[in-house]
Amino acid sequence: PNPIVKGGMLSINISGETEIAIGEGASIIGTAFYNGYPINSYPEDFCEGWVRKSGGECPILPGKFSCGTTMFVHHGQETNVVLHFDMTIIIVNNDSEVVACMEGVVASVQYD
Predict the structure, then answer these.
(1) Which residues contact 84 (CB under 8 A, 6 or more apart)?
(2) What's the domain range around 10?
(3) What HEC string does 11-39 produce?
(4) What is the pTM of this model?
(5) Please, how many CA atoms are within 13 Å of residue 80, restricted to the half-sphere of its CB?
């Protein structure tokens, strides 16, 4: 949903093209920023939490790829408000090489 509803489920799909393989043990790290300050970071095993959930396998060979996941969005302290966050998502191979970076603004709403 847009905006994201806290206390509900969120489906995220990503697609792109990589010039190098994304191997077993790669991590995906989503970091949310509010007013320029990091407020949350969500590291996860990319192959287990995203690729396999989409029916794929690692390594992802160079070329186009697409995968996704569904997650529960926990409640925050704010209620009845829409907040806008800057979001950075990176995919890092097991050798710490950054293989993908995505940035954007997301909106989140919290109800009583």
Answers:
(1) 105, 106, 107, 108
(2) 4-110
(3) EEEEEEEECCCECCCCEEEEEEEECCEEE
(4) 0.80
(5) 1
Helix (H, G, I), strand (E, B) or coil at 49: helix
Rg (CA), the chain: 15
Q: What is the pLDDT of residues 40-96, one digit of tens each?
A: 898 999 999 999 999 999 999 999 999 999 888 776 666 667 778 899 999 999 999
Q: Which of 47, 42, 26 is nearest to 97 (CA)?
A: 26
- Number of domains present in the structure of the chain: 1
| Residue 75, domain CATH | 2.60.40.770
From CA 28, how far away is CA 107, in angstroms rounded? 20
Lookup: tokens for 74 = 């926990």
Q: Are strands 98-110 and 37-45 parallel, antiparallel or unpaired?
A: unpaired
